[in-house]
Amino acid sequence: MRALLQRVTQASVAIDGETVGAAGEGYLILLGVMQGDTEAQAEKLAEKTAMLRIFEDGAGKMNRSLLDIGGDALVVSQFTLCADTRKGRRPSFTNSAVPEEANRLYALYVDKLRELGVARVETGVFAAHMQVSLVNNGPVTILLDTDEWSNT
Q: Which residues are annotated as catalytic?
């Protein structure tokens, strides 16, 4: 499972010009679910997302988490994060989880963020064609990949 965290001052997602989700200060999270991903990974990823200290403290150091600042999260499903670009010039998406499983783990991740106490959690619409807008704060963008945590 991969989550691309973008620290934002604001973000929104629209479908056909209508806003379906928005966030103020916090994260825009693009979430890709891959074949073989598990509920345990979704929960651990949500915990890491909520507690990762990439917001500035009073001294200007990245020392505060999303929970510490009472920040928002806008979570958008994005199967293209699962792209395999090792061969050729056209990405392969065969590593992506089947839609039913991807949607289930996406929803579990969102629910876990809420359970952990993230102030406001909004979403896009799973499998829809969306327009995403954001103001990246920093810019700060961090990729979390649960496959890299297998030995941690």
A: 78-80
- Say which residue the tokens 């496959």 belong to: 147
Q: Which pTM value belongs to this model?
A: 0.94
Q: For residues 86 and 70, is the Cβ–Cβ distance under 8 A?
A: no
Domain range enclosing 22: 2-144
Say which residue the tokens 């065969």 belong to: 94
Cα–Cα dist 26/32, whole Å: 19
pLDDT tens sequence for the chain (152 residues): 999 999 999 999 999 999 999 999 999 999 999 999 999 999 999 999 999 999 999 999 999 999 999 999 999 999 999 999 999 999 999 999 999 999 999 999 999 999 999 999 999 999 999 999 999 999 999 999 998 886 55
Domain annotation covers residue 65: yes
Q: Is residue 152 part of a domain?
A: no
Q: Compute the Cα dihedral for 90, 93, 99, 102 and give only its sign.
A: negative
Residue 126 burial (C-beta neighbours within 10 Å; 0-12, 13-18, 19+): middle
Closest residue by Cα to residue 129 from 85, 61, 66, 78? 78
Q: Closest Cα to residue 14, out of 136, 127, 124, 134? A: 124
149 within a domain of the structure (yes/no): no
